[in-house]
Amino acid sequence: MNFTIEQYNESVDYLRSRLDGFQPRILMILGSGLGFLGDQLENPIAVSYEDIPHFRPSTAPGHKGQFLFGTLEGKPVAVMQGRMHYYEGYSLQEVTYAVRVIRLLGAEDMIVTNAAGCVNESWSAGTLMLITDHIKIALESPLRGPNLPEFGPRFPDTTTLYTPEYQALAKRAAAELDIPLQEGVYMYFPGPQYESPAEVRAARILGADAVGMSTVPEALVARHCGMKVLGFSLLTNMAAGILNQPLSEEEVLESAAAASERFSRLVRRCVAEL
Ligand code: HPA
User: Fold this and answer.
1) What are phi and psi of 34, to 5 degrees?
2) Distance, CA 122 to ligand 1 centroid (Å)?
């Protein structure tokens, strides 16, 4: 189902009625293990997804299902504590609905993070990766259907989807903080099953360094509506078939928790400098 501009505007009107003039500049979509960054906002206003017209609740484990609006490092931000995923049963239009709503509220930038499997065999679990590009060959695009020119063009260019200046800024921030940061390509899989070992080998041959079940739909929609995008993956585990052991959600959540301090310092510094 495609949403209309009227529906997006109804969601925006509701949020305006709750925000008392607050206008976010940066949308932050935080994956497993980083949702707590929202708790570090100054003067936060929480808005539950289920109260916003046309929103869907998030059901994924480790995801709360609310917006927090407030100030982080002096910048007005909207933090999504919990995102929607295709594997929960939502359409890609539903998965990306919030991006357009927050854009209409005035946001110019998006920082998106995720937990992902590590495909690059020279790296290890716990690696932080700056997303330089993505591969999405599964599923239709979230931009499929009637184009809404209020947001952007029919055929958006994705050459510099992950904004080069912001990549440079993130690399500088990581160097200053002495936090190791790799750069690589994220390949989107719809899940909820983890990739098979053969799919992981295929991803590597295609040029991927990481595999995961989020981020790309939101990044495409953000780019379409003219936002600048900065993306990070926390590689919580070696992708399937690389080590001789099964993958588990516990491993992903534990590894996300172990890296959360390092990851949040890096993301906060990027927010400060954006
Ligand atoms: N694959 C897909 N998504 C993930 C993984 C993975 O190995 N780890 C954490 N999220």
Assistant:
1) -115, 0
2) 17
Half-sphere exposure of 207 (CA within 13 A, CB side): 8
What is the distance in A from the centroid of ligand 1 to the CA of 268? Answer: 24
Mutation to probe ligand 1, out of 136, 237, 251, 263 (largest number of atoms < 8 A from CB): 237
pLDDT at site 56: 79
Does residue 74 come out as left (phi exceeding 0), alpha (psi in the -120 to 50 range) or beta?
Answer: left
CB 74 within 8 A of CB 23: no
- To the nearest 5 percent, what fractions of the chain are helix, strand and coil? 35, 25, 40
Strands 66-72 and 42-48: antiparallel
Which is the closest atom of ligand 1 to the Cα of 240? 7
CA 118 to ligand 1: nearest atom: 7
Task: Confirm if 200 and 239 have CB atoms less than 8 A apart.
Answer: yes
**Ligand 1 atom 4: residue of nearest CA:** 116
Instruction: Answer yes or no: is the C-beta of 115 below 6 A from any ligand 1 atom.
Output: yes
Taking a C-beta distance cutoff of 8 angstroms, is the pair 34, 113 a contact? yes
113 lines ligand 1 (CB under 6 A): no
- The residue among 107, 57, 110, 66 whose CA lies nearest residue 85 is 57
Amino acid at the residue 172 = R
Counting ligand 1 atoms within 8 A of each CB, the residue from 83, 194, 234 with the most, and so the one to mutate, is 194
Q: What is the pTM of this model?
A: 0.95
Farthest CA pair distance, the chain:
54
pLDDT tens digits, 51-76: 999 987 766 555 578 899 999 999 99
- Could you report the per-residue pLDDT of 122-168, keeping only the tens digit for each? 999 999 999 999 999 988 999 999 999 999 999 999 999 999 999 99
In this structure, the residue with its CA closest to atom 2 of ligand 1 is 212
